[in-house]
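Reminder to self: tokens first, then the designed residues, so the page reads top to bottom the way the pipeline ran.
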């Protein structure tokens, strides 16, 4: 590299420390994923400091020395998850010739917590200069001086160039630092608690080291299992809890509780039967006095969908575990309070650990409340933590669909199914969004897949019936509606739509009978009034048809089909001016992309010509 100079370019994402700008939304990640610091990945814009730049430079140094990026994954969420939760492979494992002092300097630059990194580029440059001189790195974090200028100076300096150009030679391993003050186990445990929420991977490693020093600390073993669970390593968590002996009093009870909770929520996530072996830890614990017994009972009752009794069991029990269960009960019970579910999940996440699936559950509750923006943010947070979580892709698809991003929702459902192809619910949702996108054949295929996996599901059956209607498969639609009504004879939409399809085939009496049933169940169903009006029009009952259509548009003034059908009925009665007015109204209230717009425009033009000829006479 003699005679060459290194340049640091592209400051498009640089942040001036003194700025008070909030042009970038809080909670949105800034930066290139492979070089993005944990605080950037979490979207903590206000937390960015010169130490953030040190992290990015550490990534560059690591890649130059190792010959590979510090974090690798096939997707952006996968990279971000590793940035947040994992450490890169040790440099000297990949390149044994890297001096140990240089490895320590890079590791310091890549500390998960910004406060543990070098304060700025100038400090890092001084450290690397010491390495070049053969001195021992100080690995200190003094006060801030330079930021991007310090980093640019480092890369452009002769020392920096020499560092990257000179042949690397192995250094003798440095002695392990001695632990002073508290006993070593207590120091490691204290460090783990400080890292618990921000860096669970490092916290789990601290506890592993503590247990190596003192294998009898069952309380630390319980805590390490919990951290492993949050990191998505359920097998390792269960193994850790299984090492807690039954006679260790409270630690044993807590280990059994966490073991049962992990097994329960894993069964919920993967839709597998919660078998006898999985229930056993909680069944042994439910009779125990104290909060563990009541929490265990609450889980067992929730698993049996005995929601009221589950609430009673959890009443007055404190802790994030109880909040987690309360959130699940309120979010899953068909009659549950979704706002309460969000509050409980808030509390659980604030006091507990960042479980990705808890963000998914809170996203679902927020979606039910119509809070699609926050639902989307929750599902994206879950994907940052675990890009391979199928449920997170599915929940993000639901939030996008609710916000009107149908193409984005479809892409997320496809991604979710790539990870979990057996999920009938996601297949059904894909069928729904495909139908809304106008892809009726694709909707039928997706609904077929859903029903192949869960023949009892009603929603994909309804979506397939609607898609078959759009394809003109009237008999297939009638068959699907019949299957729905065999299992749910109070389904208003099935009665209303089957009635319309029967009328299409000329079965006017059967169609009107179905529509009468729909209106008896729900007199406020504008679709049923409109469909019955058209069936009566076909049977020649024009005045009765007009009365039904009047009700339809009165109930839903923005119902395009109702106005179009009333226009046709008025035309049949010879009221050409009224017909033209209704057809025009249908075009005004129709949603963007309404597939019948061109047909109604043609019909309106035809009605107006007839009206003009009659007025000219």
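Designed residues (617 positions):
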């Amino acid at each position: 590299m003699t005679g060459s100079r290194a340049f640091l370019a592209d400051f498009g994402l640089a942040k001036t420390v003194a700025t008070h700008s909030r042009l970038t939304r809080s909670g949105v990640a800034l930066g290139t994923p492979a070089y993005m610091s944990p605080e950037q990945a979490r979207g903590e814009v206000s937390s960015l400091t010169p130490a953030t730049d040190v992290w990015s430079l550490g990534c560059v140094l690591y890649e130059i020395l190792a010959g590979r990026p510090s974090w690798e994954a096939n997707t952006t969420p996968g990279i971000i998850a590793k940035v947040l939760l994992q450490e890169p492979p040790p440099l000297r494992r990949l390149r044994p010739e890297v001096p140990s002092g240089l490895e320590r300097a890079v590791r310091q630059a890549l500390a998960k917590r910004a406060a543990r990194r070098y304060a700025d580029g100038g400090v890092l440059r001084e450290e690397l200069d010491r390495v070049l001189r053969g001195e021992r790195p100080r690995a200190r974090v003094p006060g801030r001086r330079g930021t991007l200028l310090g980093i640019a100076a480092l890369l452009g300096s002769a020392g920096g160039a020499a560092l990257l150009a000179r042949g690397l030679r192995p250094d003798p391993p440095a002695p392990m630092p001695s632990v002073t003050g508290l006993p070593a186990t207590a120091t490691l445990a204290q460090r783990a608690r400080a890292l618990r929420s921000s860096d669970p991977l490092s916290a789990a490693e601290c506890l592993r080291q503590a247990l190596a020093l003192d294998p009898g600390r069952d309380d630390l073993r319980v805590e390490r299992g919990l951290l492993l669970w949050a990191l998505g390593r359920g097998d390792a968590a269960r193994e850790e809890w299984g090492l807690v002996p039954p006679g260790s009093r409270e630690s044993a009870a807590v280990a059994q509780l966490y073991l049962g909770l992990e097994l329960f929520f894993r069964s919920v996530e993967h839709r597998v039967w919660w078998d006898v072996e999985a229930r056993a830890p909680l069944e042994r614990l439910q009779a125990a006095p104290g909060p563990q017994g009541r929490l265990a009972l609450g889980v067992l009752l929730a698993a049996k969908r005995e929601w009221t009794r589950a609430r009673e069991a959890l009443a007055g029990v404190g802790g994030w575990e109880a909040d987690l269960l309360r959130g699940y009960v309120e979010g899953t019970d068909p009659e549950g309070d979704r706002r309460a579910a969000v509050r409980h999940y808030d509390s659980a996440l604030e006091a507990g650990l960042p479980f990705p699936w808890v963000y998914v559950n809170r996203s679902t509750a927020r979606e039910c409340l119509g809070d699609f923006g926050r639902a989307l943010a929750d599902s994206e947070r879950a994907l940052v933590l675990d890009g391979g979580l199928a449920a997170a892709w599915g929940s993000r698809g639901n939030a996008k669909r609710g916000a009107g991003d149908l193409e984005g929702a479809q892409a997320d459902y496809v991604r979710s199914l790539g990870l979990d192809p057996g999920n009938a619910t996601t297949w059904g949702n894909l069928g729904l969004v495909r139908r809304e996108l106008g892809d009726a054949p694709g909707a039928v295929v997706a609904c077929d897949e859903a029903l192949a996996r869960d023949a009892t599901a009603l929603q994909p059956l309804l979506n397939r019936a609607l898609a078959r209607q759009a394809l003109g498969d009237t008999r297939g639609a009638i068959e699907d509606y019949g299957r729905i009504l065999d299992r749910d004879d109070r389904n208003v939409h099935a009665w209303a739509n089957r009635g319309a399809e029967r009328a299409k085939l000329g079965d006017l009496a059967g169609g009107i009978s179905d529509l009468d049933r729909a209106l008896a169940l729900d007199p406020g169903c504008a679709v049923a009034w409109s469909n019955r009006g058209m069936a009566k029009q076909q049977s020649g009952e024009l005045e009765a048809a007009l009365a039904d259509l009047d009700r339809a548009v009165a109930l839903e003034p923005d119902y395009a089909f109702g106005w179009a059908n009333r226009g046709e009925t008025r035309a049949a009665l010879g009221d050409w001016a009224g017909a033209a007015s209704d057809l025009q109204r249908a075009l005004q209230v129709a949603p963007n992309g309404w597939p019948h717009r061109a047909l109604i425009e043609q019909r309106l033009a035809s009605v107006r010509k007839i009206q003009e000829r009659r007025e000219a006479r």
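Residues 481 and 494 are 5 Å apart (CA to CA).
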